[in-house]
Amino acid sequence: MIKRDLQDGASLFILQEDHADLAAQFAAHWGNERFAKLEPYESMVFAGIYHDSDHRETEADIPSPGLTGRLGMTVSAAGRISHQAS
Predict the structure, then answer these.
(1) Long-range contact list for 60-69, CB < 8 A, 24+ apart?
(2) Domain ranges, residue 39
(3) Could you give phi then psi for residue 5, rounded to 5 degrees?
(4) How far is CA 84 from CA 5, 37, 50, 78, in A?
(5) Mind listing the pLDDT tens digit for each residue in 9-29?
(6) Which of 29, 48, 60, 74 has the CB geometry, 3.0–4.6 Å to 10, for a possible disulfide?
(7) Total count of domains within the chain
């Protein structure tokens, strides 16, 4: 899990697999007139998708007393939860 402390005292929690999904999207869409497409393309996208999949079980076991809802949320210093726009 990635934890990012925000300026307002809240924390943003991002699952490793969500991070991996974003990496895979970057890999899948990489390449334009200035940057070459990744090669080998299929292997690079596959690696992006699965490079953090071993964290699934570990993250499912992380205790989160008092927290409800989904991950990918911010938790303020006062304990208030606000979801990030998807």
Answers:
(1) 62/1
(2) 2-83
(3) -80, 130
(4) 14, 31, 24, 17
(5) 877 878 788 888 888 899 999
(6) 74
(7) 1
